[in-house]
């Protein structure tokens, strides 16, 4: 859409929303939120940007096909899930670092898992919306 | 003291929202409805959110409330603009008592280019 | 409150079914979505509803002490919602593709595969 | 009447009634744009309800939902506008 | 350029800190790093942003604006609640002094948020703003009030 | 022994590989297998003659007690000798008959497979193994009948044959299983010891019925006989081997085998006498009117099979002895006649008996074989056939009150059979040789020697019955009777009623032969009754069945999705309603319900209206938007009832769904076709009933107390063990993290699906 | 016995799928990865079944949360067997895909989705949690949706709409059933449910819930009158996809029915009658439908329905022997149906059509291939002693034992119809003179393919044919295995104790 107003607003919204998305992701273990909603917000940020500036521009920002985020996220989640297997533990057994990390709190495999979820959700949402917008 | 300010803020907020609600029903055309609701609702929500900030009296919550308000102030008018513009394109009519329509004929129907030309006075006429 | 919710759930199921029985592919998908919503609410209600006590442990404590809402149905619904989203997204795109190749939204014209080819 | 009762028995119903009124516009239309306006306003009002409810239940976490509502309401409006323009173009 | 980036970065870090409510040094450092990465991720070489340099001024303008918003609402409220319509709506063409995208956008948004006005669109050559207004008793006076009111004040702050 | 049974399969399995090499003159080498087997089985004669039986056990599926338990007694020995003996001759004959045929290797493969199956059938003591071999004979027969598969008639006949025999086979299977269930054993030898138990068991009639169905279909008894004439589409060696000498006798074998188990019971005897009697008469009369040599032989074979069933049905010692003899008699002369027919067909190119005469002049050895066989068939002394016929009359004459009726039936049958035999065996060879056949010459000895051997045996056994009397026939009768009978075969029994009957038969048959001249007109007269023949009736039933099948399938599988949905929901609703109203004590515990508040009621009211609006609005977009409102209302409900995570997710997903819809809908055409009021009312009723049932069910479940063991555990341990305070999220990423893992995979797949659905365009070469 | 590695069949498929996504555009790499990893998974599955048979049931609790609090994965003989069968069929179809799936489809995610589907199947078999089962079902559904529509041809779309609708409806019903079950007992672990449901006093509600599960799984396994989607859709996608659908997908429904109706809801008399009637009518509709079809894939599709009826009949008789029969048939059916759909693909490649009217002469032109194809065709019929035969012994005997003659009659009738249908198919496709039949343009015929591709299409058929020969001729081993499983289906105590630990005496 060719509107200066929207275009301008969207370029400021993008970093803000991404920040918010990561915020939601990281605090999910303590308060409502988490990888899924966080990922959705991040995706929405890009979608809004693409509505305003066209998909090509948004693609330029992401630098690769968003679908590629899916295997990356899946791989991350998978690694987090099966890491315990290498030490003889059951699938998805929580592995935790000894001490809490500042800001984030306790860091463990669950966090990496959630980040995997986050990436997958971003990849999925963007793939779907971009594909359909392109073929309209 | 806090309680009273919360009560006042939330009442005002609710009333503004109520006004917006009545407005959206009562206003005779789409543009007026957009016009009414954007501000009434934004203001009303802002007030209620501030009431909440007062209530919790916590820095992180206050800052979050401010972030929401900021965000709404940023997006509400943009949304209104987009919807208004798109509606005009699709030929949503203005209220019969409307006085001017400077936008008439300025959109190129195919390319959606909006020109800035001022039309001759004889063309400019009441709707 | 449960009574009202029960009625709404029944209504959602009924509406979902009714929409599935229309001839329009779009309505069919809407029907399926309504049905999904009904099922989600059903899980929610049957996990027994509790007002205003989200299952979040507050800053000071280590366990959920007082009466809290059952977190299990919530987790189930979350999963179900997300999964249905994936399925719905696909189904919605299917509408588009179907329109492209069959040139209609009318389900009655999509029955060639039941004929003997 | 305590603040809680006030919020619960006056403000919350007032907001709910507002939604009901807006919903009338949604039902009446007549154009899709009107419905989008009312949808947007319903969500906005929803944010108000959430804020009041978070006070009532003393759960500040609900405010985050408000944030997401605001964000997504915007997305919805944008998408509908996008749709309206696209559709017009294809006619 | 570097300065602009740094400032945006700082601002985002501050927003992060207020979002999380964690006003400690670590929180800030983390927010700073995070926004640094984000800015790096979303940056394109063509960008030339001045938004973040104007941060504080914008916040000041924000409070001025709240006042206008309340005023606007009261006026509309009256019209909504009373049975008769007092309005004379119309779409008005307003020539712009504002030049940059940011100026135009802010102006348009502010106009939308003020009494009975709604920015419908900006012409593609950025010379004209089309505004839908509820009360246009006198067209020239209306254009003048916009240009002298919001636009001037805004440009003062921005430039 | 296992090897001897399975060797045919091995040979068949090797043939596709080595087939190319043996197609030429080497094919006769394959005959070595049946010859060796024949000799091998001959070696059992002395032992069997002494009343010994041999038992061989090879484990196969001991779990079920299904093993290769081979039991060799007189009965099985007779059959193995027939199978391998006639088999040897047929193998030899084939090497000349189908010389140079492209698919000769296949043919031998099927033949070998058949031979093995047949051997397995007659040797098995285990009734399940017996059934397995039984089915294998049907399958081999299917392939052999359809050997000339370019011809549609061949394909049809083979399907028909397989249809009938397969159909019966399944009954037999059920019967065998039932026998096993009743007695706890699958061994025939053991079953013989439990006759009393079986006879008195409530399932006895059922068992009889099932076994009979198997035997009758296989042995082409009325009314299942009609597949056999069709089976004559097969090359002549097949007709010889399968459809006269061996396979069709499997049913006879089965009945004989089960006589000690199931026989000696009123139902057994009556049924067999009636079915056998009807078959022998019906088919014999039919044989008279045929023109096609093979047709004549087919019907006379059916008739002969009827005679055998009839005899087994009589069940007396005499009758069973007669049956034992007649099996051999028939095998010898009928195989000869078939082989001869094959030669005639091969040389003259026709099988129309009205066109054939005087062939003796060009192929005398063949004629001799044929005439000898016809004599044996006619029961003219001193042939072996005479001996057989005498025994039959002996049996009928001594069958109490019904003796006269039965004897008359037997005589009539034999007259017709005699006629048929003369028609096939004598008519072509005597008389004037048509000019067109003058240049014919004798075929390869490989073709005419086998029938000569068989026909010769038919006379030798008649003259010297002692050769086979105690070594072969006696043990057969012993096996059928399960006792040791005392008798001797002899050509001459002195002047008796039996001799009179024989004379009448021969006289009648000869008379008929000279009066009736086979012609088209005669055939046409006979075929007038075709529409009421069992074949027509059964085929008509099949057609009705098929069109019903088509109708039912088309009605069920009508292509309209909504009817599929309706059928599912009706099914579910009926079951639910039945179970809810019948099994549940309906009540509502109001004390447990929470209060109703105004704002929630408003939200729910809005939701209800939106639902109705979604359903009834005419615009798809408005429906989608209304669906959005439904979603937002649900979001608020989640919020009110302590589910912030859910509210967030529901809200975001709902909006995304609406957006997707919007993006997809923009180019869809207006939907105009509205369904009629009737169907809308019907759908509405169904929907409301279903929704109502779900509501009712929900209310009832709400009355029950809910155990909270699991959520209590989560509440306890979410922070202490899983280090998270948002219990829902802890469940999602930890307690039930596997769900979430799967969930994101679902999303990824959906995204890939969307991507390929919209982007993938097949090039025309890639479309399939 | 606790063993965290029992989930390896799932993990290895997931790993494969993710790996394939990284090689999105490299079709040859994808093919190689798919085949190699299918082999690896097969190895893992063999190992799994071996240890389960040797040491008893193996369990792992995801997240190390003791049952019933976490999600239990459990490898009992039945689930390990299903995993093994999935891996066998998976390997065959993977190789077959190398030869038969078009590059365009490979470039749009065929192989990743295929492995996701296999992962979903393995997950469904190995999980011990009812909601987790739902989730795996969704994986199966979504990946099958994508596969069935991959290419987006008209027939595919039309078929898939029915497929999608019915599966989503089934999911909704399944989810409803889970909701009610949770609302009644507050648990999701199947072993735990087994105990808790048995202890529930309100049997009426339990029965209603059972109905919901029955219908939900019934749709998925395509029983009458819930099956209509199957004949409408299974013949539409490319043959490799049909093969995996025909072989495995409906059997997941059967598996779920077996699991739920032995472990959680032990059928009462009403349920037994219901299942029996449904089974009988399923056999009849399926086989009758097959009788009148001309498209060979539709013939096979209808036969899937009919033969699902057999397996359900085994459940309906609810005796140990009948269940043994069902398990045996399950083994046979997965292998043979997968094979048959591959055979149909091969026939299509050779002749360019699926229609019997236009097919013919195969026996003349490709005698050895025809004989090869005869193996699955006649195995399906159950010509003794081929693999389809043995299960019928168990069912017929059970039917007589419990005096359910109706089911015996249906099974016999079904066998006869199958025999006739397949013989007709043989006569039409292989025997009929094929010289005069029309040739299609724009189709790349079998003989034009590269030798590697031809091998890739023929080898898996050989592979599965050998397996079905083994099932038939070496029936003893398979029966031993089925007997172990059938026993455990009737006596669920080992299953429950493996998950929850020894049950104390106070619980009934
Ligand atoms: Na979360
Ligand atoms: Na989830």
UniProtKB/TrEMBL annotation, chain B:
- Pfam families named in the record: PhaG_MnhG_YufB (PF03334)
Q: Which NCBIfam families does this one have?
A: CPA3_mnhG_phaG, PRK12674.1-2
Gene symbol here is mnhG
Which Gene Ontology MF annotations are present? sodium:proton antiporter activity
The entry's protein name is Monovalent cation/H(+) antiporter subunit G
Lineage top rank: taxon: Bacteria
Q: Which UniProt keywords apply?
A: Membrane, Transmembrane, Transmembrane helix
- Tell me the organism's taxonomic lineage: Bacteria, Pseudomonadati, Bacteroidota, Cytophagia, Cytophagales
Give the transmembrane ranges: 6-25, 37-56, 62-84
Automatic annotation (TrEMBL), chain C:
User: Signal peptide position in this chain?
Assistant: none
Where does the chain cross the membrane? 6-21, 28-50, 75-95
A Pfam family found in this protein is: Oxidored_q2
Per the annotation, which location comes first and is thus the protein's main one? membrane
- The organism's superkingdom is given as Bacteria
Record's bilayer topology term: Multi-pass membrane protein
Into which family does the record put it? Belongs to the CPA3 antiporters (TC 2.A.63) subunit C family.
Subcellular location per UniProt equals: Cell membrane
What's a single GO CC term here?
Answer: plasma membrane
Q: What name appears for this protein in its UniProt entry?
A: Na+/H+ antiporter subunit C
From TrEMBL, chain D:
Gene Ontology MF annotations: sodium:proton antiporter activity
Report keywords, A-Z. Antiport, Cell membrane, Ion transport, Membrane, Transmembrane, Transmembrane helix, Transport
Q: Where in the cell is it found?
A: Cell membrane
Q: Which domain of life is it from?
A: Bacteria
- Keyword Transmembrane helix among record annotations: yes
One GO cellular component this record assigns the protein to is: plasma membrane
Q: Where are the transmembrane segments?
A: 6-24, 36-56, 62-84
Which membrane topology term applies here? Multi-pass membrane protein
Pfam families with a match to the protein in the record:
MrpF_PhaF
The text of the family note is:
Belongs to the CPA3 antiporters (TC 2.A.63) subunit F family.
The protein here is known as: Cation:proton antiporter
Classification lineage: Bacteria, Pseudomonadati, Bacteroidota, Cytophagia, Cytophagales
TrEMBL record, chain G:
The UniProt entry lists membrane topology as: Multi-pass membrane protein
User: Where is this protein localized, as stated in its record?
Assistant: Cell membrane; Membrane
Looking at the UniProt entry, the stretches that span the membrane are 6-25, 32-53, 73-96, 108-127, 133-152, 164-185, 205-228, 240-258, 270-292, 299-318, 324-348, 369-393, 405-431, 452-473
User: What domain of life?
Assistant: Bacteria
Q: Which residues form a coiled coil?
A: none
Q: Which UniProt keywords apply?
A: Cell membrane, Membrane, Transmembrane, Transmembrane helix
Q: Where is the NADH:quinone oxidoreductase/Mrp antiporter transmembrane domain?
A: 129-418
Q: Name one GO cellular component term.
A: plasma membrane
What the record says about family reads:
Belongs to the CPA3 antiporters (TC 2.A.63) subunit D family.
Q: What is this protein called?
A: Na+/H+ antiporter subunit D
């Amino acid at each position: 859409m060719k509107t200066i107003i929207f275009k301008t607003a969207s370029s400021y919204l993008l970093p803000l929303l991404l920040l918010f998305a990561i915020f939601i992701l990281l605090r999910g273990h303590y308060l409502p939120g988490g990888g899924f909603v966080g990922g959705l917000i991040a995706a929405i940020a890009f979608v809004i940007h693409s509505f305003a500036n066209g998909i090509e521009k948004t693609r330029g920002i992401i630098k690769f096909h968003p679908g590629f985020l899916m295997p990356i996220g899946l791989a991350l989640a998978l690694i987090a899930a099966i890491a315990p297997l290498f030490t003889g533990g059951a699938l998805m057994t929580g592995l935790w670092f000894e001490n809490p990390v500042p800001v984030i709190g306790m860091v463990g495999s669950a966090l990496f898992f959630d980040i995997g979820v986050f990436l997958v959700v971003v990849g999925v949402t963007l793939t779907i919306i971009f594909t359909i917008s392109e073929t309209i | 003291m806090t309680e009273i300010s919360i009560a006042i803020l939330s009442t005002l907020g609710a009333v503004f929202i109520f006004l917006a609600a009545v407005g959206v029903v009562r206003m005779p055309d789409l543009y007026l409805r957009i016009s009414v609701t954007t501000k009434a609702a934004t203001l009303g929500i802002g007030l209620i959110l501030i009431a909440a900030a007062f209530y919790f009296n916590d820095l992180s919550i206050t800052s979050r409330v401010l972030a929401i308000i900021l965000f709404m102030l940023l997006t509400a008018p943009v949304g209104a603009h987009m919807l208004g513009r798109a509606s005009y394109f699709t030929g949503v009519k203005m209220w019969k008592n409307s006085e001017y329509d400077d936008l008439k004929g300025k959109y190129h129907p195919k390319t959606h280019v909006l020109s800035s030309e001022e039309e001759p006075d004889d063309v400019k006429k009441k709707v | 409150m449960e009574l009202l919710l029960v009625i709404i759930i029944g209504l959602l199921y009924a509406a979902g079914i009714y929409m599935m029985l229309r001839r329009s592919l779009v309505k069919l998908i809407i029907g399926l979505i309504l049905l999904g919503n009904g099922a989600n609410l059903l899980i929610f209600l049957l996990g027994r509803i509790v007002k205003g006590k989200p299952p979040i442990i507050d800053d000071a404590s280590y366990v959920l002490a007082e009466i809290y809402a059952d977190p299990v149905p919530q987790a189930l619904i979350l999963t179900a919602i997300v999964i249905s989203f994936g399925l719905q997204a696909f189904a919605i795109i299917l509408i588009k593709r179907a329109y492209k190749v069959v040139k209609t939204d009318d389900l009655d014209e999509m029955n060639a595969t039941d004929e003997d080819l | 009447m305590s603040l809680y009762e006030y919020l619960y028995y006056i403000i919350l119903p007032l907001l709910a009634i507002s939604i009901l009124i807006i919903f009338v516009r949604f039902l009446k239309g007549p154009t899709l744009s009107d419905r989008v306006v009312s949808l947007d306003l319903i969500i906005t009002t929803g944010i108000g309800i959430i804020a009041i409810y978070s006070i009532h239940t003393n759960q500040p976490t609900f405010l985050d939902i408000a944030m997401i509502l605001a964000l997504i309401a915007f997305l919805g409006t944008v998408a509908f506008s996008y749709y309206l323009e696209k559709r017009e173009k294809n006619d | 350029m570097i300065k602009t980036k740094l400032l945006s970065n700082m601002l985002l870090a501050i927003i992060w800190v207020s979002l999380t409510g964690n006003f400690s040094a670590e929180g800030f450092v983390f927010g700073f790093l995070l926004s640094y990465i984000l800015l790096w991720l979303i940056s394109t070489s063509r960008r030339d942003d001045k938004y973040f340099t104007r941060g504080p001024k914008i916040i000041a303008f924000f409070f001025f604006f709240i006042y206008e918003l309340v005023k606007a609402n009261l006026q509309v409220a009256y019209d909504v609640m009373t049975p008769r319509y007092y309005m004379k709506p119309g779409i008005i063409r307003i020539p712009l002094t504002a030049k940059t995208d940011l100026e135009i956008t802010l102006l348009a948004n502010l106009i939308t948020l003020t009494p009975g006005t709604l920015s419908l669109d900006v012409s593609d050559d950025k010379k004209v703003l089309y505004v839908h207004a509820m009360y246009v008793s006198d067209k020239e006076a209306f254009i003048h009030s916009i240009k002298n009111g919001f636009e001037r004040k805004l440009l003062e702050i921005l430039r | 022994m296992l090897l001897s049974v399975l060797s045919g399969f091995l040979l068949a399995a090797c043939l596709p590989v080595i087939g190319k090499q043996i197609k030429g003159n080497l094919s006769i080498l394959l005959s070595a297998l049946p010859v060796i087997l024949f000799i091998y089985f001959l070696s059992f004669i002395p032992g069997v003659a002494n009343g010994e039986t041999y038992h061989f056990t090879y484990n196969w599926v001991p779990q079920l007690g299904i093993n290769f338990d081979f039991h060799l007694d007189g009965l099985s020995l007779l059959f193995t000798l027939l199978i391998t003996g006639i088999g040897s001759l047929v193998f030899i004959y084939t090497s000349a008959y189908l010389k140079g045929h492209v698919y000769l290797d296949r043919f031998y493969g099927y033949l070998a497979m058949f031979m093995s199956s047949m051997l397995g059938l007659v040797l098995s003591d285990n009734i399940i193994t017996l059934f397995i071999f039984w089915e294998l004979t049907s399958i081999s027969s299917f392939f052999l009948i359809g050997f000339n598969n370019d011809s549609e008639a061949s394909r049809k006949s083979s399907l028909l044959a397989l249809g009938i025999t397969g159909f019966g086979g399944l009954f037999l299977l059920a019967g065998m299983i039932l026998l096993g269930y009743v007695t706890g054993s699958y061994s025939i030898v053991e079953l013989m010891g439990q006759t009393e138990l079986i006879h008195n068991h409530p399932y006895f009639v059922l068992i009889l019925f099932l076994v009979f169905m198997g035997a009758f279909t296989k042995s082409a008894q009325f009314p299942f006989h009609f597949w056999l004439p069709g089976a004559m589409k097969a090359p002549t060696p097949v007709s010889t081997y399968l459809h006269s000498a061996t396979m069709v006798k499997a049913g006879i074998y089965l009945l004989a085998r089960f006589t000690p188990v199931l026989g000696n019971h009123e139902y057994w005897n009556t049924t067999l006498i009636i079915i056998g009697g009807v078959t022998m008469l019906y088919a014999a009369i039919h044989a008279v009117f045929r023109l096609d040599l093979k047709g004549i032989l087919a019907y006379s074979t059916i008739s002969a099979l009827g005679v055998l069933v009839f005899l087994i049905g009589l069940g007396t010692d005499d009758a069973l002895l007669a049956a034992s003899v007649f099996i051999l008699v028939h095998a010898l002369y009928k195989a000869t006649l078939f082989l001869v027919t094959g030669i005639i067909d091969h040389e003259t190119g026709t099988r129309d008996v009205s066109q054939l005469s005087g062939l003796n002049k060009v192929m005398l050895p063949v004629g001799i074989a044929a005439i000898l066989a016809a004599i044996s068939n006619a029961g003219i002394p001193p042939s072996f056939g005479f001996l057989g016929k005498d025994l039959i009359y002996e049996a009928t004459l001594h069958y109490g009150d019904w003796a006269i009726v039965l004897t008359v039936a037997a005589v009539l049958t034999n007259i017709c059979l005699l006629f048929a035999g003369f028609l096939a065996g004598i008519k072509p060879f005597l008389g004037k040789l048509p000019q067109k056949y003058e240049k014919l010459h004798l075929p390869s000895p490989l073709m005419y020697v086998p029938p000569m051997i068989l026909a010769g045996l038919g006379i030798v056994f008649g003259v010297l019955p002692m050769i086979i009397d105690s070594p072969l026939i006696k043990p057969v009768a012993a096996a059928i009777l399960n006792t040791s009978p005392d008798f001797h075969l002899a050509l001459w029994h002195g002047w008796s009623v039996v001799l009179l009957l024989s004379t009448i038969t021969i006289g009648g048959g000869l008379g008929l032969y000279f009066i009736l001249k086979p012609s088209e007109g005669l055939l046409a007269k006979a075929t007038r009754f075709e529409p009421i023949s069992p074949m027509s009736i059964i085929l008509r039933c099949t057609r009705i069945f098929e069109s019903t099948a088509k109708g039912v399938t088309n009605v069920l599988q009508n292509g309209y999705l909504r009817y599929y949905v309706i059928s599912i929901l009706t099914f579910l609703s009926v079951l639910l309603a039945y179970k809810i109203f019948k099994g549940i004590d309906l009540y509502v515990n109001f004390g447990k319900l929470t209060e109703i508040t105004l704002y929630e009621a408003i939200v729910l009211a809005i939701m209800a209206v939106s639902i109705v609006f979604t359903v009834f609005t005419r615009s798809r977009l408005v429906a989608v938007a209304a669906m959005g409102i439904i979603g937002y209302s649900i979001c608020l409900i989640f919020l009110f009832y302590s589910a912030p995570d859910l509210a967030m997710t529901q809200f975001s997903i709902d909006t995304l769904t609406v957006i997707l819809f919007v993006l997809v809908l923009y180019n869809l055409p207006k939907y105009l076709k509205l369904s009629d009021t009737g169907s809308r009312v019907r759908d509405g009723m169904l929907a409301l009933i279903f929704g109502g049932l779900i509501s009712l069910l929900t209310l009832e479940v709400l009355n029950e107390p809910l155990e909270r063991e699991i959520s209590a555990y989560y509440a306890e341990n979410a922070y202490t063990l899983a280090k998270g305070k948002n219990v829902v999220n802890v469940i999602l990423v930890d307690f039930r993290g596997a769900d979430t893992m799967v969930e994101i995979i679902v999303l990824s797949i959906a995204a890939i699906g969307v991507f390929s659905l919209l982007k993938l365009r097949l090039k025309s070469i890639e479309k399939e | 016995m606790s063993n965290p590695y029992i989930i390896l069949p799932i993990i290895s498929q997931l790993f494969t799928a993710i790996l394939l996504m990284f090689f999105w555009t490299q079709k040859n790499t994808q093919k190689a990865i798919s085949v190699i990893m299918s082999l690896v998974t097969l190895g893992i599955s063999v190992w799994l079944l071996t240890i389960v048979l040797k040491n008893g049931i193996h369990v792992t609790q995801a997240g190390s949360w003791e049952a019933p609090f976490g999600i239990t994965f459990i490898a009992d003989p039945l689930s390990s067997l299903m995993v093994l069968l999935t891996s066998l069929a998976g390997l065959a179809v993977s190789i077959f895909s190398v030869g038969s799936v078009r590059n365009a489809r490979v470039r749009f995610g065929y192989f990743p989705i295929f492995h996701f589907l296999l992962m979903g199947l393995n997950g469904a078999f190995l999980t011990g949690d009812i909601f987790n089962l739902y989730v795996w079902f969704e994986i199966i559904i979504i990946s099958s949706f994508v596969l069935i529509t991959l290419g987006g041809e008209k027939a595919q779309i039309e078929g898939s709409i029915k497929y999608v609708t019915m599966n989503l409806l089934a999911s909704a019903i399944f989810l409803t059933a889970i909701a009610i079950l949770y609302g009644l007992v507050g648990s999701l672990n199947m072993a735990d449910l087994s105990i808790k449901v048995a202890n529930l006093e309100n049997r009426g509600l339990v029965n209603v819930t059972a109905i919901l599960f029955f219908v939900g799984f019934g749709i998925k396994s395509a029983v009458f009158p819930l099956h209509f989607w199957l004949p409408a859709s299974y013949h539409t996608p490319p043959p490799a996809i049909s093969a995996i659908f025909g072989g495995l997908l409906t059997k997941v429904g059967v598996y779920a029915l077996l699991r739920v109706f032995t472990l959680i809801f032990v059928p009462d008399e009403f349920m037994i009658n219901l299942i029996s009637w449904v089974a009988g009518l399923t056999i009849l509709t399926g086989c009758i439908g097959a009788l009148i079809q001309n498209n060979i894939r539709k013939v096979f599709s209808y036969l899937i329905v009919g033969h699902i009826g057999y397996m359900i009949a085994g459940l309906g008789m609810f005796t140990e022997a009948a269940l043994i029969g069902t398990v045996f048939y399950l083994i046979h059916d997965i292998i043979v149906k997968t094979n048959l759909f591959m055979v149909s693909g091969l026939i299509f490649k050779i002749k360019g059509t699926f229609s019997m009217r236009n097919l013919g002469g195969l026996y003349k032109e490709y005698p050895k291939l025809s004989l090869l194809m005869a193996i699955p065709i006649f195995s399906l019929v159950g010509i003794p002693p081929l693999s389809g035969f043995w299960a019928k012994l168990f069912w017929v005997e059970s039917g007589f034992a419990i005096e359910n003659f109706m089911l015996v009659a249906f099974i016999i009738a079904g066998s006869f119809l199958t025999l006739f249908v397949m013989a007709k198919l043989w006569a039409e496709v292989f025997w009929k003179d094929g010289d005069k039949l029309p040739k299609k343009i724009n189709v790349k015929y079998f003989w034009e393919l590269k030798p590697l591709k031809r091998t890739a299409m023929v080898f898996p058929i050989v592979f599965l044919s050998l397996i079905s020969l083994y099932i038939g001729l070496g029936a003893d081993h398979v029966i031993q295995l089925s007997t172990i499983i059938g026993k455990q289906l009737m006596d669920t105590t080992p299953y429950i104790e493996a998950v929850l630990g020894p049950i104390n005496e106070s619980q009934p």
